[in-house]
Specification:
With 341 residues, this protein is an all-alpha fold. The protein is 72% helix and 1% strand.
Length: 341
């Protein structure tokens, strides 16, 4: 078990921004699941741990939990929610890192998530159809951040195509389509009417994947992302409007960020300076802690030596008064050990 923990720590410390983001998301999910299990085992009243970290639409609730504008993008309410988001984060992140810096990946993830969260809050406080739903409405998940990353790449390299070996899919396209059909149907049945591919009819999803199985290469990434954005937009009235609005907020930041970056203006420069400051502060504290621990150890060592020397001096005084035979066995042992050093 210790080896597994050491491997995880090593992979996290040596990994890039993408690796760290995935580890943090998975780690947070496991932590909350463990807390939930303990609350069940010890008959504690049902604790909604996620409510302390999910982003509320109500501004008064947000004022009491301001950290949720950041924490919500690292939370997931189910294993499937986590799994699909991490798959897309990995694929989008790998593609992102082919063109841009890992530091920019982290900036896009966090600032895209914040943008999605802000649009969600604004929508629920100012759009008439949503204002009456503000109380007890919250969102969680990395989807807005992930869509921000994917839109950023689609903006940076719109004609990029993902080359995959679709020859096998040609032979298996019926299986491919059927699996997509049942996956969409399952998620719509158990996901408040919204599947992994938005509100598309499962039959339509199956046909799309059948078509994908006939391709030699993927469509240009700009078309893939455009379809995802359109699906989010038309899904707002059907189910989970807050989540879809947050996705659009994240997408907007990804587009704006790269447009500004291409024009020579890095919107994340201020954020990067703040992150650099905190990272430097943490490293400085670690160094101070090491120095303090080392100094503390030296002090303890010197203190022990002084106490030991005082005992020896007391024993020598006793020998001078009453001779060696007057010593106890313990005193003789102390003197013998000291003579060996």
């Amino acid at each position: 078990m210790s080896n597994v923990i050491e491997d995880i720590k090593r992979n996290f410390n040596t990994g890039n921004a993408l690796t760290k983001l995935i580890y943090i998301n998975v780690g947070v999910f496991l932590l909350f699941q463990i807390l939930f299990v303990f609350s069940f085992l010890f008959s504690i009243a049902e604790l909604r741990f996620s409510s302390f970290f999910a982003l509320p639409a109500d501004i008064t609730a947000l004022a009491k939990k301001p950290w949720t504008i950041m924490s919500y993008m690292f939370l997931h309410n189910s294993f499937l929610h986590l799994l699909f988001n991490m798959v897309f984060l990995y694929l989008g992140g790998k593609l992102f890192l082919q063109f841009l810096h890992p530091r920019q990946l982290l900036s896009t993830y966090i600032l895209g998530g914040i943008s999605g969260g802000l649009l969600f809050i604004l929508a629920y406080n100012y759009i008439p159809a949503l204002k009456h739903q503000t109380i007890d409405v919250s969102i969680l998940g990395a989807s807005a951040s992930i869509l921000s990353i994917m839109v950023a790449i689609a903006t940076y390299s719109p004609n990029y195509q993902i080359f995959l070996n679709f020859n096998r899919l040609k032979r298996l396209r019926w299986i491919f389509a059927i699996v997509a059909f049942f996956l969409q149907a399952f998620l719509q049945a158990f996901g408040n009417g919204v599947g992994f591919f938005g509100t598309l009819n499962p039959l339509m999803v199956g046909l799309i994947f059948f078509y994908i199985g006939t391709l030699e290469r993927s469509p240009k990434i700009k078309y893939i992302i455009l379809i995802l954005i359109i699906l989010d937009f038309i899904s707002i009235p059907i189910g989970n409007p807050g989540g879809h609005i947050a996705h659009l907020g994240g997408a907007f930041f990804g587009f704006l960020y790269v447009k500004q970056l291409n024009g020579g203006n890095d919107l994340a420069s201020g954020f990067n300076k703040i992150m650099h400051y905190f990272v430097s502060l943490l490293k400085h504290k670690r160094k101070l802690r090491k120095v303090y621990n080392k100094t503390k150890s030296d002090q303890d060592f010197r203190k022990e030596k002084l106490i030991e020397q005082a005992k020896i001096d007391k024993i020598l005084e006793k020998i001078a008064k009453s001779g060696y035979e007057g010593l106890t066995k313990q005193e003789k042992d102390i003197l013998f050990k000291a003579s060996k050093k």
